[in-house]
Structures are given as C-alpha cells and as structure tokens.
Design a protein that fits this description.
Elements (H helix, E strand, L loop, with lengths): L3 E9 L2 E2 L4 E5 L4 E5 L6 H9 L6 E7 L4 E4 L11 H5 L1 H5 L6 H10 L15 H15 L3 E5 L7 H14 L4 E5 L3 H7 L2 E6 L2 E5 L13 H19 L1
Parallel strand pairs: 4-8, 4-9, 6-7, 7-8
Antiparallel strand pairs: 1-2, 1-3, 1-5, 9-10
C-alpha cells in the first residue's frame, strides 16, 4: 500500500491559505494534524476525502483508497436511533450491518443502553460517540477524523481514544485536533499546519496509544504547546 499524498496549495476566494505543502500519510500509521483555528486543517481533510471545499487546490491527492470521514458535526439523522445511525453506512449501501461488530462497538463506546434512543435524547458527547461508532463501523483503509473527541469529558475521551486506536490498527489515519496531549498519545506522526506551511514534529517513543502520564507524552505535549504558542504570537 502506497502513502496517501496531498500536494499543492489551497485557495479560498482567491487567497492562499498557506504556501505549497506536501502532506504524506504513511500507510497503516496514525498522523495527527495540529494548527491554529482557521488555518485550513479541516479543508485538507475534506480534500483528501474528495469533498468540495468552496475553493480550489492547485495540486492533487494521490493514492486515495476508500475513505471513512468523521466530521466535526456528528451529522446524525434525527429519525434514526443510535443503533441505526451507527449502522448507516451499510444501510445506505443496501447491505446488512455486522450485528456482532455493531453490538461490540456500541458497548465499548458506552452506548449500549442508548441504542434505541434518537439523537434529540442524547447529550452532545453521546452524539459524538455515535458518530465515532458509525465511522469505526465503516472499516475503511483510510480514516479521517476531525476533532473526534472534542465534546467528551476527560475519562470518556481516554476511553474513546483507546477504542479508536484499537479498532484502527493497520489503518491509515489522519486526525485533526487542537489537543497536543491527544496527538502525543495517539500518533505515529505529528504535523503542524500554519500560515507559513507544514512541518513535522517529533513524536514520543513507543507504540500508541501511550499512557497519558508517560514522560515522553508529557514532554511532547509541552513541546507542541510551545510551538503553538509561538505561532500564535508570530
């Protein structure tokens, strides 16, 4: 399997978001993308997914396999239950969902007791977990995650990180996040996108998911916070 590569420059309303970049996603690895708000992280995610961006890419996306995308908005259908929303992909394709896999993911996401509820009866964090479960049900070789744990409390965030890391072993993952600790814990590779371009940052030793208290994770978190603070002050 070859790496997924996005190369070029993005323009919105005629304005370049950043200089020409080359974002490479090594196969089977988890890449995290950090950067200031509004710099274009979600735009890159949409480009890799093959979705419109309201602008243009002077470049190309290479080696894109079938994709599963979890956007910032959970996008749950209000007339479907938790279980039905989580199994939406197979339903739209006219296929039967893997019931055992669905039950396992819902249980591990803490949603088993909410399987028959509709989105209006769920909290924001629960809706985000349903969206994550739906993405994990897709079982695609390329998985794109846009701030997938942002609405969760600290305990549930760790649990969902572990769930995603376990189920996405061997997949190529790109996660947009504003949380340096999350990136340090989960990533094989960390990239920072700013108006000046794209850089690759050091990652902690050892395979992810790493313990939150791991000294390497804490050091990486501190270094990323420093970099982000420097960029904000520039």
């Amino acid at each position: 399997m070859r790496p997924v590569v996005l190369s070029g420059q993005v323009r919105i309303d005629g304005q370049a978001l950043f200089p020409p970049i080359r974002l490479e996603l090594p196969p089977g690895q988890w890449t995290s993308l950090l950067g200031p708000s509004g710099v274009g992280k979600s735009t890159l995610l949409r480009l890799i997914a093959g979705l419109p961006i309201g602008g243009s890419l002077a470049g190309r996306v290479e080696n894109r396999p079938p994709v599963a995308l979890m956007a910032q908005d959970p996008g749950l259908l209000p007339w479907l239950t938790t279980r039905q929303n989580a199994a939406l992909g197979p339903r739209l394709r006219g296929q039967a969902a893997d019931a055992a896999r669905l039950d396992s993911i819902l249980a591990r996401a803490g949603l088993a007791d909410h399987a028959a509820k509709y989105p209006a009866a769920l909290s924001g964090g629960q809706r985000q977990r349903v969206a994550l479960a739906r993405t994990l049900m897709e079982d695609r070789p390329l998985v794109l995650l846009d701030e997938p744990f942002s609405a969760l409390d600290a305990r549930m965030r760790l649990a969902m990180q572990d769930l995603a890391a376990g189920l996405l072993i061997g997949r190529t993952v790109l996660m947009v996040t504003h949380d340096p600790a999350e990136a340090a814990r989960l990533s094989d590779r960390i990239c920072l996108l700013t108006e000046a371009g794209l850089t690759t940052e050091p990652t902690p030793a050892g395979p992810p998911p790493r313990a939150p208290s791991d000294p390497g994770v804490l050091a990486c978190q501190g270094a990323l916070l420093t970099r982000l603070t420097q960029e904000a002050a520039a």
